[in-house]
Structures are given as structure tokens and as C-alpha cells.
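ok here's the first one, seq then C-alpha cells
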Amino acid sequence: MTATIDGAGAAADALELDRVESHLHPEGSFAVEDHVVPTGREEIWRFTPLRRLKGLHADAPFGPGAVKLETELADGVTLETVPADSPLRGASGLVPTDRIAARAWDAAAGATVVRIPTDAVIEGATVIRHHGTGSETAGAGHAVIVAEKFAKATVVLAFDSSATLADLVEIVVEDGADLTVVSLQDWADDAIHASTQHAKVGRDASLKHVSVSFGGDVVRHDFSAEYAGPGGSVEALGLYFADDGQHIEHRLFVDHTAPRTKSHVVYKGALQGEGAHTVWIGNVLIRKVAEGIETYEENRNLILTDGATADSVPNLEIETGEIEGAGHASATGRFDDEQLFYLKSRGVSESEARRLVVHGFFNDLIRQIGVPELEEKLTATVETELAKNIHTLTGENA
């Protein structure tokens, strides 16, 4: 069962990758002591409100019971729980690059492994729900998702209610497989969530990774991907909505470790309310061996009210010029008063005009997710987020 995973690792090793220093993605280590307690002056922590992490970044104790799991397995998908010393942990090549991830690795009692068997084409989504229990003790979790050769499936990781959680998610997409993974953070307003997710994509394999963040006091989501062979493709989509006092941070790192690979990143966010803060850090590394690759990353932010702040930092690190194309774009703008005036002049109320503009901003991205029942939920959640401040903004009832 693990031979194919080991084979993917051997393929990556065969590429004989040079060590590359990146200030946005430092060298990893499983040992907690190798990661100093961050002060906020470090590049990877300078946007994060450390005082609000309840000690996840330092030495706050972990314990059981922070979240309760509920699973809905699609036909043909298997699930097992493996111990902490299982070789399936680390199957994706994940190595913690910050102290929270290293602490989660050390504290997790084992891992939940979701497996899609070879050649299986799975109808419907497998859903793993993480319900916060409101426990004062922080929890540490670990999930491993394996799509075996030429398999096709969708897996949704859903997080809700109240919790303090540090979790790891590993994604292994073997040769020729086609996998969609959706991480939906729909927390209560007091939740703290630090998630580290890493994918290894095999030869001619495809991964669509979707991260959606609503709610929570502080949500910090770190997604990275590498390639175990040529021809692999990664599509990373993201959607987030922050309101009063919320901090939502997404960090991405795509490491083109093989030739003729592709990556396409699109994240969109909206902000409203005093102290709403979003952060998007995108980084693509094109190594010397990665000839013939294509990559593009894009981040768009829509600020709906005064008092909200969006930080957006796209990066490209290029070690070879023998590529098909590479680019990035970032834009942050306020609500378009001209659009609002146009709609109001045609009899549309201000609250409805705002809804139309925001839904239009998100809808093209939501339609790309490819999970109809989830798309409907996201559209409804955007509506709920808009309703929170609509009376304050317009004087109208929602």
C-alpha cells in the first residue's frame, strides 16, 4: 500500500534538487526546538497577531477533545486512523517550517488517512467535518489524503464552531490522478486556527486545492505544493471574507520541482468593519530543473468599509529562463461608488446594490470549485456576511 507513495518520493529524490534559501519558506524541521518562539519581527510572522494565538506559537499545552470528527465517505473511499509512528505521516514530503506546525506534528496522536484506490472514479464528495467543542485546551490534528494512480475524487475538510486548533493536512496525488481538496474554515468568531497543508503531485496528475475562510478570531492557513514528476498541475483557489476585528491570513508556496509542470493561483477576499485584516502571501519557486513550466498567481481584495486593511504580497523566484510563462497580479480596491450610483439610479436599493457587486466579485471563483452543494452554501454564507453590517452601512434593513 505504501510502495506507490515511496515511489513518488523516490521520483522527487531523483530530481537531485539543489537546496534553495527562501525567506518566505524557510528550511523545515520536525524538532520543535529548531523553531524559536516567534517575536513578530520574522518575515513569516510579521503580519500575524501573535498575542491572539493563545500560545499556539509558544508553549501552550495541547490536549484531546478540541474538535469532534464526523465523516461522510463517498462510495469507494476508505478511512483509517494510524498511529503517530506510521510511515504514512510525512508521505507528502511535509516538513514543518514554523513552530506551530512542528508542535502540531509532535502533539498529534496519529493521523486520519483518507484513501482513494487506484483507477477509482468517485461520485460525490467525501466530507470530514471538524466540529469545535469550545474546549479551552488547544487541539492538534493530522490528516493524510491519498489519491492513488489514475483515481479521481473530491474531499472536503470542514471546520466549524469554536476551538483553538493547530492541524496538518498532507495531500498525495499519485501519477495520473485527479483530486479536488476543499478546506472550508467556517468558524465561530472566537476560534483560533493555524493550518499547514502540503501536497505532492505526481507525473501528469492534477490537484485542485480550494481554501475558504469565514469566521474565526485568527485564521492562518499555509498551503504548499511540490511535484514528484513532470506534467503535474496545481490549481489553487481561495475565497475569504473578514469583518470586525477578524484576522484571516493565507500563505501559499508552489515549488516547481519538476519540468513541464503548471500552477495557477487565484484568491479573492472581501473585508468590512473596523479592524478587519486579511493577509495573502503568494510565492512561486521555479527551480533550475523546472524547464517548460507555466505559472500564474493572482490576488484580489475588495474593501467595503473604512477601518479594514488588506495586505497582499505576490512573489516569484526564478532560477531558469527556459519556461513557458510566469506572472503574478495583485489588486486591492474600495467598493466602486460608480457601480453603486449606476445601480441606484436604476431603482436598485443601496443594500441590494452592494449585494450584487460583492456576489459578482465572488461568483466566478465560486463556480470554479466544482462541488454544487458547496457552491450553494458559499453563496449563502457570503450573503450572511454582508448582512452583518448592511444596516450600519446603508441605514436599511438587511
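and now the second one, same deal
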Amino acid sequence: MTSYVLNRLYSSGGTEILHGTLEITDGVAHHFLTDGFEDLDVGLETGGLVTFIACGISIALPKRGSDGKQDLKFALCNIDGSVSGFLRAALRERREINLVYREYISTDLAYPSKILRYKVKSGSVTATEAQIVAGYFNLLETLWLRHNYTGDFAPGMRYQ
């Protein structure tokens, strides 16, 4: 039933609404946010229930392609400063921040209709908003063969 409704929503709309949500975490602290004016009580894919807090979010989902630039960009309102303070500290301390984007259909809030997982690549926080760029996979920070060829690892090599 959900796939029929989702296909209809994507192709021609309907009476249902798609709710976009963000979970931002560094493994210790979790922030659950949704775009809009009302909090959203929903079920997670793990079976747990959570309340996503309403706030001003602008989300730009990445296009599908093979160019390696599949980034999620979002701007977050900084009304109370709790999430932007968390982001500012985590970015400054270079902690790994994970982001989960979930979409829910308004008639079925028990389980997300779409789940996308990202790692935060960069961001900036001002007094009024936080802007974050996250991606599926950070290729630039991946080592080929998983070794750093440094003087200690490979003494015959010389960095020029």
C-alpha cells in the first residue's frame, strides 16, 4: 500500500504530505529535526519511537549520478542555538558527524518511506543559521590500499 501511495505522490501528488526529517548525531548526542511548525511523532526503522522537533530547515537533496558530488546541503535556523552550538563544537573539534535524512508519508508515520545516510563534510555556523554539506561517501579522505606511504611506512620513498 505504501509503495502505491509513494509512487502516486512522486508522479502526480495527492492528499498526503511528505515530511522530511533530519537526525544529526556524533554518536553521543542526537538531534531530531523536521521542517515545519509542528513536532512530528514517528517510528524509526529500528522500531523505536521518536519526536522530531519542528524548526526551519532548508534541504537540498543530491542528484543521482556518478560524478562523486552527491552532497546533501541544508541550512538550519538558529533560533535557540542548541543544534548550531552542537554543530559548531563538533566541527571545531573535528568529530565525525553523521546525518540521517528520513521521509515520512503523512498517512503512515510508523516507518520512513525513504532513508538516506550521510557523513558531514563541512559546514559553517553563524548567529542566524547553520549551513552543512554532507555526502554519501567522502572519496577524498579515503586511502587507496588503505596505507599512507610516508617515510616511516616506506623508507625508500621521498616526499617532494
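notes on #2: Residues 42 and 109 are 5 Å apart (CA to CA). The chain has one domain: 16-146.
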